[in-house]
């Protein structure tokens, strides 16, 4: 058992691209993380644990050029179809219509809804009470960045204390923080920090980071329009309080970990403009256009 004297290891990795950053973060967690139980570990009829403890750490992952190629990992759990659906879910809100906290078969939130239409209840003791007017936090981010790019207040949050502590699946993403600096050529560059309370480092990190950096690109474009000057996409920093690898899937994970440790990550990555990827992305967009409930429940 990795116990580390009762302290959660605080780790840091830096990489140029998303695929390399994901591999480095996963390897760091496995090598330097601690073993800890989760609320999802399965037990047998006698109450004994079936799943091994998860491997866990606190980690900061810096991606210096989030749109550098190759940008897409071939082996992240999922595939191009799931990646494009998730990107649209976060950036474009295609699944916001699945939200209904009163319906156990629907969702209590999406990241898009919390970022683009944050609407807490008026009564903290009654989550069903009338909501305050929705706030488009991303519009605020864009307007604030255009008006005062040096501001330290350019942020958006997701946590809703009136509702989230009582739910089975509260948001993992907590906050986005943006700031614009000038590069050596005097061009404005939009930096993004994302803050997470919890994260499945192996199964979720790559898709999360891919979607959020696309949102970063979208926001940089909107600020560019307001300023009449191109705002470049800068580094992405991902800070996670509990970056974990679940014991329940160690059997499937360990062969992938072996590849990460022994091979070159570039051999396991695709450029985002790869023809096969583009075909799969386009087919997915067409399916979503015809059926907004495509991949419901995935």
SSE blueprint and pairings:
Elements: E1 10-15, H1 18-32, E2 34-36, E3 54-63, E4 72-73, H2 80-91, H3 111-116, H4 137-147, E5 155-157, E6 173-182, E7 188-196, E8 199-200, H5 205-227, E9 232-245, H6 250-262, E10 269-270, H7 275-290
Parallel strand pairs: 1-3, 7-9, 8-9
Antiparallel strand pairs: 2-3, 3-9, 4-10, 5-6, 6-7
Helix pairs in contact: 2-5, 2-7, 4-5
Q: Could you characterize the architecture of this molecule?
A:
This protein has helices at 18-32, 80-91, 111-116, 137-147, 205-227, 250-262, 275-290; strands at 10-15, 34-36, 54-63, 72-73, 155-157, 173-182, 188-196, 199-200, 232-245, 269-270. It is globular. It has a single domain (4-41, 50-290), classed as 2-Layer Sandwich (Thymidylate Synthase, Chain A). The mean pLDDT is 93. The chain has 298 residues and is α/β, with parallel strands linked by helices. The strands form two sheets. Strands 1, 2, 3, 5, 6, 7, 8 and 9 form an eight-stranded mixed beta sheet that branches. The protein has a two-stranded antiparallel sheet with strand order 4-10. Helix 2 (80-91) crosses helix 5, helix 2 crosses helix 7 (275-290) and helix 4 (137-147) packs across helix 5. It is built from seven helices and ten strands.
